[in-house]
């Protein structure tokens, strides 16, 4: 090999190394948007922050968007995520029907959307939906409710957002059991939008018309705490049994203290981390994802509460 040939190859190697170095310096990490229905509920804060942390651990940029239970604001977040060049969206929908349009816009822009905890009424728009098995969880809750009320008495049901499928999955699972006991009579059923303060107001109003109730089934833990607060103020917390759903930290402590009778333990961290991992697989070229991935819900009562407080 001549001296000129050696110099040529050395220059070629240097150019190749420089090109690779420059490309590495300019290459930006992929960006993941985490759009959640609300951050006004500690449970959804855990969902959002876990998703963001997992995405960051995987080497991606992550940003959380709060829709404040408003589909119009949610639409703005999707528009922002698409136009700002986010590569994937981890999504907790505000409305099972109203959120479909937003996911469709992301799909048209080739941005994958992975739903967490809440589903939409479509099996063709989201890349995958990772969901709590709310129906089965509330079958177990219904059985425990019947047992605690000795198969008789008056009760109230406080529903979550009427546009969220989880609201109705939980209600239907609960009623699939409780409705078989004719001496258990539902005297009121109202929505409190999964909100603690609204549930307190609903409970205060219900107690005026039905002061002799025996139980309250709430579609989430925030509402259970609001209902319990109203019962304490009315001097009825010792008689009326309150049942929640979520597995929120404050309610776990309340179950241990005997204030709340039971809750359904959901696993927001599992759903959030699974969604982030699915995004990573998508970036690696995978396109075949299960449309719905159920995550089991576990009944938490005073009998097993220590198993959950120690986690």
UniProtKB/TrEMBL annotation:
One Pfam family matching this protein: Peripla_BP_4
One GO CC term, this protein: cell envelope
Keyword field contains Signal: yes
Residue intervals of the Periplasmic binding protein domain: 32-286
Subcellular location: Cell envelope
UniProt keywords, alphabetically: Signal
Main location: other
Family, similarity comment: Belongs to the bacterial solute-binding protein 2 family.
Name this polypeptide is given: Monosaccharide ABC transporter substrate-binding protein (CUT2 family)
Organism expressing this protein natively: Arcticibacter pallidicorallinus
């Amino acid at each position: 090999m001549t001296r000129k040939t050696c110099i040529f190859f050395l220059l070629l190697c240097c150019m190749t190394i420089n090109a690779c170095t420059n490309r590495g310096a300019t290459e930006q990490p992929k960006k993941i948007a985490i759009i959640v229905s609300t951050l006004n509920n500690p449970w959804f804060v855990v969902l959002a922050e876990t998703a963001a942390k997992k995405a960051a651990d995987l080497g991606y940029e992550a940003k959380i968007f709060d829709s404040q239970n408003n589909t119009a604001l949610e639409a703005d977040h999707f528009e922002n995520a698409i136009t700002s060049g986010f590569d994937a969206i981890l999504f907790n929908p505000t409305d099972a029907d109203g959120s479909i349009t937003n996911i469709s816009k992301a799909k048209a822009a080739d941005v994958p959307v992975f739903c967490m905890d809440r589903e939409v009424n479509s099996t063709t728009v989201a890349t995958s939906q990772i969901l709590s098995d709310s129906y089965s969880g509330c079958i177990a809750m219904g059985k425990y409710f019947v047992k605690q009320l000795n198969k008789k008495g008056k009760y109230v049901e406080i529903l979550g957002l009427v546009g969220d499928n989880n609201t109705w999955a939980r209600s239907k699972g609960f009623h699939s059991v409780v409705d078989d006991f004719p001496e258990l009579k539902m005297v009121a059923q109202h929505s409190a939008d999964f909100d603690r303060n609204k549930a307190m107001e609903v409970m205060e109003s219900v107690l005026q018309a039905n002061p002799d109730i025996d139980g309250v089934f709430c579609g989430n833990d925030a509402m259970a705490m609001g209902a319990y607060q109203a019962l304490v103020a009315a001097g009825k917390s010792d008689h009326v049994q309150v049942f929640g759903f979520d597995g929120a930290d404050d309610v776990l402590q309340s179950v241990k203290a005997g204030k709340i009778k039971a809750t359904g333990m959901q696993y927001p961290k599992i759903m959030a981390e699974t969604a982030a991992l699915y995004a990573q697989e998508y970036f690696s070229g995978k396109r075949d994802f299960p449309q719905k991935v159920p995550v089991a819900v576990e009944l938490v009562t005073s009998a097993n509460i220590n198993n959950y407080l120690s986690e």
